[in-house]
């Protein structure tokens, strides 16, 4: 897989980060050494993959948002049967994790070790600097929305569309008890 879109998160200084409110069982890997996978489960059905990149004890990471499948198209299509074409296989963070077969079992995996590991980062060919754009992170609101920490390859069809943060609405109707 060739990464085409990522988002950075700066731990306790970043309201958009899972580590903003401190260490939990869910985000503990973010506080560990760099070069490990932080995999979390979201919306009760999807996994997302981050790479821990800060020094040990300082939680920061990069969410892998989108990519182009270069090898293993058949397997990726088996994992993502609803993808209409190759560009949709890993277009978005949950789709990327699904196409790669990533789930919580890979949380904490060393991705900088052996290239034969279930998940590893390999040297590739970087995009030309003028092709890499940055802007606000997708779906991040409040103070976290001000950071232009989303990076993508301009014009790449596997890049997911930008979505501004939409605040959750609280249920305004009250239930009457005892009637």
From TrEMBL:
Q: What's the EC number here?
A: 3.2.2.-
Cell membrane among the record's keywords?
Answer: no
The segments labelled Disordered in the record are 119-179
Tagged with keyword Cytoplasm: no
**InterPro entries of this UniProt entry?**
Formyl_transferase-like_C_sf (IPR011034), MPG (IPR003180), MPG_sf (IPR036995)
Record's keyword terms, sorted:
DNA damage, DNA repair, Hydrolase
Tell me which HAMAP family the record gives: 3MGH
The record's similarity note reads: Belongs to the DNA glycosylase MPG family.
Q: What is this protein called?
A: Putative 3-methyladenine DNA glycosylase
Taxon lineage = Bacteria, Bacillati, Actinomycetota, Actinomycetes, Kitasatosporales
């Amino acid at each position: 897989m060739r990464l085409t879109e990522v988002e950075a998160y700066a731990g306790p200084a970043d309201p958009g980060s899972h580590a903003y409110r401190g260490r939990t069982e869910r985000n503990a890997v973010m506080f560990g050494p760099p070069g490990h996978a932080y995999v979390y489960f979201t919306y009760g059905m999807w996994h997302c993959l981050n790479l821990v990149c800060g020094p040990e004890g300082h939680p920061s990471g990069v969410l892998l948002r989108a990519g182009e499948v270069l090898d293993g198209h058949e397997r990726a299509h088996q994992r993502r049967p609803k993808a209409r074409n190759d560009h949709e296989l890993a277009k978005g963070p949950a789709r990327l994790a699904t196409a790669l077969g990533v789930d919580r079992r890979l949380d904490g995996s060393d991705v900088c070790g052996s290239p034969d590991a279930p998940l590893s980062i390999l040297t590739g060919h970087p995009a030309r600097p003028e092709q890499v754009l940055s802007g606000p992170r997708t779906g991040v609101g409040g103070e976290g929305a001000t950071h232009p920490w989303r990076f993508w390859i301009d014009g790449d069809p596997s890049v997911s569309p930008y979505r501004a943060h939409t605040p959750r609405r609280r249920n305004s109707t009250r239930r009457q008890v005892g009637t």
